[in-house]
Amino acid sequence: MRVIGLMSGTSCDAIDAAAADLTIEGDAADTVVLRPLGALECAFPDRLRHDLLAALPPASTTMADVCRLDTLLGQALAAAADRADRELCDGRAELVVSHGQTVHHWTEGGRVRGTLQIGQPAWIAERTGRTVVSDLRPRDVAAGGQGAPLVSALDVMWLRDRPGVSVALNLGGIANITVATGPRGPLAYDTGPANVLLDTAVREATGGLADRDVDGALAAAGTVHAPLLERLSAEPYYSRPAPRTTGRELFNAAYLRAALTGFEHLSTEDVLATLTELTARTVADAVRDAGGTEVIASGGGIRNPTLMAALGRALDGVPVRASDALGLPSDAKEAYAFAVLGFLTVHGLPGTVPACTGARHATVLGSITPGRRGLPATGGVGGGVGSGAAPPVRLRVARTDPSPDPQMGM
pTM for this one? Predict the structure, then answer.
């Protein structure tokens, strides 16, 4: 089945669209085989991104704004899906899986009570004619889970047979890990901020004229400020037991301003150097706690050489490899993961690992918006939605290109 996965993350910078040919194989139908067909990055229209960021916590908004953003995001996602179908699938995609844009993750006392992603899927189905799986997180929350990191299901299937203790790391707006194997695995949780506070600090310092530290150049010119790092590291979130999740509800502009109280004399470079060190140390602490013997990294943060150098120092010898080395493009890994999750959904198969999300049981994820020709054919595998069949336990990436040097330079 040709499937397009759409992902828009915490950074709100673009829509990642990834296309894959997915099949379920094995005598016991226990293996998902993923053949990557390519990926695209589709930038948000400037006004849409501005209005979306302006509506996110801690800002207030109106239901009228939510309706408008839900529609405009749906149309932007539809355009991305249509382009991916034409350019990556030769117009033969059968399914689109849309994560949408998380606008609120409602947590109280470490428990997730609700989650909201917008980006109306009807626009995708209408423009492409394809069936759409969307709204994937709420079912896990309803089953008592954190609703995140959902990419953990792919990570566990993908890395379970590797030697040692493999830790998948995503450095997006928020950093999260999946411990696929080992005494503590499977386990997954958000370790804390990655790009979200770095981007916020740049926007605050430039009055919105810039929104990121390109290549970590500003942080590289700064010096880590120990008292600020100590204050940031005292955040209670880091001591909460896993599984745990976080987002802009906690790590936002108001949070950063409060943290910088009394440190107004610090240069932008020093603030960014300190925030970079915070991310590196909180990730490294999580990897060490899990007994990780290797880190498989993905997400936009791996393009930041200053962050990766800090992470290398904090990990003190634990090798870090880009997910590209194992066949999944690091810039589009989450989009591929959601393609897999939606693929499991239309086969009636669970897409969660309860040990990773904290749910009472595994669930079939998402809501389905049928395409013009109805639901895609599954060939009887899985038995269809509501079948109760057991999910696959392995994922194999059918690699088509030679892999790069598997270990990232630090």
Answer: 0.92
